Amino acid sequence: MTILGVVFAVALLIALIAILRVQPFVAFIITALVAALVLGLPIEKIPRTIERGIGDMLGSLSIVICLGAMFGKLIADSGAAQRIAEALMHLFGPSRVPLAMALTGFIVGIPLFYNVGFVLMVPLVFSVVYRSKLPPMLVGIPMLSGLSIAHGFLPPHPSPTALVAQFGADMGKTLMYGCLISVPTLLIAGPLFARSLKRIAVGSLDLFKPTTLTEEQLPGTFNSFACALLPVVLISGATVLSYGSFDPATRTLIDFLGNPMLVMLVSLLVGSVTLGVSRGRKLGQLMEGYGHAIRDIAGILLIIGGAGALKQVFVDSGVNTELGDLLGSAPIHPLVLGWLVAFAIRIALGSATVAGLTAAGIVAPLIEISGVDANLMVLAVGAGSLMCSHVNDSAFWMFKEYFQVSLRDTFRSWTMMETLVGSLGLVFVLLLNAAL
């Protein structure tokens, strides 16, 4: 009965979001209430369970995600993203523009949240197309694959960050493992796959001809790269140092300095000075931009909180244990199972973030039962949540309209690229699991 209750809850969530178009946070709360009743949770405990689930989830994530949103806004508005793109194109030369764009999307995608990155980088794609005379798909797909990979695999993006918390994984290790699987995935799903799309007809590009910053308005190359990659360097550095032999006081200091909250705060403060105040931007302007970033991320925070409510219902009703026993006995590798659950929900709902968070509540008990690496489970679920973007995904339509291609060619290019990212992500997660 409890398993049927979980299936019913997931079906209800899908119906509310995909069919009735209910706002995802409201849909999660409704689903959590109904699931609590169906699963036999005492009525007097239901409000407290939902409140606890939301609070526990957001308590550990809201600071990191909000600071990450502000940091990404700074990278975008300062021109650092444009400088990174131009520097990489100069480094790789005209013949390797697709590779340069893939790396640009990946590097810029680390601090930038996906929707912001998409809107920011697509005009930059067309700027490169105008200058290089290359086919738009050969330039655009590598860039967008880099953004997508960072969005699905790497903290501080909302879904991977939330999955780290739900699975009890380590932020630093997840980031390092994510970078390891991202590189081969990016090369195949980006520049290599884009070569097969060169002949796809793209509509008039005049609408999206960008207005770029002048050379004098752009920050320096070192400054741009250093700021954009500072969170990765700090978190990864603390993780590497954690393997060393240090006295307790030093180890405590390393753990403190590597805490994601502190890392994002330091990165934001450093960026505010080097990309903002020192380059003539007023503090008030920076704060106004940060305010816009918080407003942009509010919806995602609510979705994460709603997912926490549903997860807590599963835990408090005892279904979490039963789900773990059931999934643990399935004749499928745990990482593949986590990927499949996220894949199925992604197909139904469209949103990669919602798919990953919903899948996490279902497969979380599998980690303890199977003993699988929690960091790799974060990446497997993240890969599944990127699969087969289609007509119920807003990014699908953004790509179609920005590139002005037919529905058929959108499936052939965008959907296929996302599917390659998700499939290759799983393959490399499994290979990394075998090597560890």
Verbal overview:
With 436 residues, the protein is an all-alpha fold. It has one domain. It has helices at 2-19, 24-38, 46-77, 80-92, 97-109, 114-132, 136-153, 158-167, 171-194, 221-241, 248-257, 260-276, 283-316, 319-328, 334-349, 352-370, 374-384, 394-403, 407-435. The longest helix is centred in the C-terminal third of the chain and has 34 residues, at 283-316. It is globular and about 65 Å long. The model has no long low-confidence stretch (mean pLDDT 86). One of its GO terms (molecular function) is gluconate transmembrane transporter activity. Its main location: membrane. It is a multi-pass membrane protein. Keywords: Cell membrane, Membrane, Transmembrane, Transmembrane helix, Transport.
